[in-house]
Every structure is written in C-alpha cells, then in structure tokens.
Amino acid sequence: NFTIVAVVGGIIFFWRAFTAKSPIVDLRPFTDRNFATGTIFGFTLGVALYGLVYILPLYLAQVRHLNAAQIGEIMFVTGVCQFVASPLAGRLTQAVDPRLVLTLGFSLLGISTWQMTFVTNEWEFHELLWPQVWRGIGLMLCIVPINFLALGTLSPALLKSAAGLYNLTRNLGGAFGLAIINS
C-alpha cells in the first residue's frame, strides 16, 4: 500500500516540479552536467562519510568493549586530519585539476577502507591510526573538489536550489550507506 502511495506521490512531485511556474523544488540545476556529476560523487561520498563513522564506533564498542572516551580518542584522529587537510585541499583544488584532487581523495578513502578489512578483535589505537589518518585526509580531498565541481559553475539564480539539492543527495548517500551497512 505504501509503495503505491510513494509511486503516485513521486509522479505528482515530478509533474509539479516540471510544470509549475515556481516549483517548491527547482530541479533545473540537474541540467548542468557538472552539478549532476558532482551530486553523484556527493552521494558516493555520503556513503563513505556517514557509513564509516557509523561502523567503526560500533565495532569499538561491541567487539573491543571500549568506553565512549576511548572510542572518541580513536575517532578524534579522523577529525584532526580533516582539520589539518582542509586548507591543503582548498589550495590543491585551486592549483591543480580538481579531478586529480578528487581521484587522490577517493584513493585515500579506498586505501583506508581496504586497511580496515584486516581488522581483528585485537586491533588497538596504533593499528587503527593510519586508516583513520588516510580517511580524514581523503574525506577533505573529496569534499572540497566535489563542492567546487557541483556548485562552482552554476549561475547565481540556480545556486540556492542547487546547494539544497546537493546536500540532500549527500545525505541520501549516507542514509543508503547506513541502511546497507546496518543490514
């Protein structure tokens, strides 16, 4: 029953979005190739951003039986690396082709995730350190060029709608990633 309601609601939404003079949700930014590509990358980034932040603390609490402070110490590494890498990511995105920065960022995320595939119930801070470092740096090397790619070439008239749609797709990626990982 709810599937039928969702399908009918979706049809009505898209019909209204494409035919209304002033739609509630302006989908015109998706006609820009850079924005459409950026939102696909943003969706993928959402999976990595939210999914990995979900699964590691769960592992640390349920398998390693660490308390909240110990989990925070381990997770803190990613945040510090993101903070340190942020200005570097901005400069790199301006200095070289943002696609190269994005490739490096997703490569570092891949390396981090690959390193975490060997995790055992005996891993402690020092084994988890480098995967967290690569993840933190990789996330920033993805976030900055994706934002530039998705929003950097849009006209000011489309930017307001585009920013909301971009954030929505990144959060949807996170939601899908969390649902898949949790299953």
Explain what the structure shows.
The model has no long low-confidence stretch (mean pLDDT 92). With 183 residues, the protein is mainly α. The two termini are 23 Å apart. It contains six helices and no strands.
Key terms:
single chain; mainly alpha; flat; 183 residues
Helical stretch count? Answer: 6
Sketch the topology as an H/E string, one letter per element. Answer: HHHHHH
Shape: flat
Strand percentage lies at under 5%
Helix-strand makeup class: mainly alpha
Task: Give the beta-strand count.
Answer: 0
Measured between the Cα atoms of the first and last residue, the distance is 23 Å
Low-confidence stretches: none
Largest sheet: none
Q: What's the average pLDDT?
A: 92
Binned, the helix content reads over 70%
CA-based gyration radius: 19 Å
Concise synopsis of the structure shown:
By secondary structure, this protein is mostly helical. The chain has helices at 2-19, 33-62, 68-95, 98-116, 125-151, 156-182. The longest helix has 30 residues, at 33-62.
